[in-house]
Amino acid sequence: MNKRDVVKMVLDGKKPPYVPWHCGFTIESLTKLTARLGTDKWNGAIDNHFVKLGHSTGFVEPIGNERYRDQFGVVWNRSIEKDIGNVEGLVLPEPTLKGHQLPDPEDDLCFRDISDTLQQYPDCFRVYCIGFSLFERAWSLRGMENVLIDFLENPTFLHDLFDAIADYNIARAKKALEYDIDAIYFGDDWGQQNGLIMGAKLWNEFIRPRIERMYQVAKDAGKYQLIHSCGDIHELIDDLIDLGVDLINPFQPEVLDVQALITKYRGQVTFHGGLSTQQTLPSGTPEEVREETRRLLQMGEEGSFVFAPSHAVEGDTSEANMFAFLEMVLSQPGYVEIHGANRAIR
Description:
Elements (H helix, E strand, L loop, with lengths): L2 H9 L15 H11 L4 H4 L4 E6 L4 E5 L2 E4 L4 E3 L8 E3 L25 H7 L4 E6 L4 H8 L1 H10 L1 H22 L6 E5 L11 H22 L3 E5 L8 H6 L4 E3 L8 H8 L4 E6 L4 H4 L2 H14 L5 E5 L9 H12 L2 H7 L7
Parallel strand pairs: 1-6, 6-7, 7-8, 8-9, 9-10, 10-11
Antiparallel strand pairs: 2-3, 3-4, 4-5
C-alpha cells in the first residue's frame, strides 16, 4: 500500500491504516525547514501524501522591483507578502469585458512539468491545482471593492465575468485530465473570520452555478474534487457535498468546530487541515503543538481526515514547533509499519 492508496481510502470514507497528511509552508518557514532537513526536496523528506501539479496560486513571471505578472495580466507586488503578493492596479477598471480576453487555458505553461513531477513522486496522490479559480480571480482582475459593488450594481457584468472564468477553468481541467491524475483542486476563498464575504444569498446566485459546472468535470471523469476556501464556510458544507466535493481545505479551528464537523460529516466529505496556524503554531510550546496534533490524529483514525496545519505554516512558527507536529505524524504506528521509520525528521 502506498501513500496514494491511503489518501483514496480516506476520501472513500474508509478507515485508513494511519492518518495521511499534506503540509504546506510559506517561503520564510520553508527556509527554516529545508535548512534543518539539509535538502530542498522537502516534500519527499517529510513524506507529504499529495503531489501538487499545476499551480495553487497561478503562474507568474518577474517584471522587476519585486513585481510579478501572472497569465491574466495581474501584477503582484511581493515586496511585503512574499508568497503570493498584493495586487497592483486593475486589469478591468470598468465593469465590462469588451476588448478583454482571458488567457489560453491549454497553454503549455500550465502542464509542461506534470510528467516529470509524477515520475519524481510516483506513490503520491495526484492533484492538479487551479488557484484563484472564480471569486478570487474576479477580484484580482477587477479589485475587491469593485467586485463587491458589482454584486449589487453591475450584476449582469459579474455574471458574464464569472461565466468566462468558469469556462477557462473547465477547459484547463479537461486538459489536465488527459494526464494520470487523481483529483482536481480549485482554490477560491469565500470566508472571513465570521461567515461569508458575500453572504449566502449572493454566493448561491453568483458562485454556486459556476462551481457546479466546474466540479462536474472531475466527477464526470470519475476523479475526486478537492477545494480550498479560507475562513468560516460552515454554512456551505451541505451545498458543497451536494455539488460533489470530496475534500475541503483548510479546516481552520479558529472559525470552524473541528470535532463537531468531523463527527457530523464523517463518511460524506473529508476535511484537510485542523492544526491552528493563528494560535498554537506561532504561540504554543512544542508540547502544546504535539498535544493538538495527537488530538487531531486520534480524531482522524476512523477516516475522513487529512492532517495539516490549517494553512501554510507562517514564518512566525519556530523550527521546534514545526518539527513537533512532523515528528508526530511520521511516528504513527500504521505509517511506520507500512513505510518504515522516516530518518529525515530527527
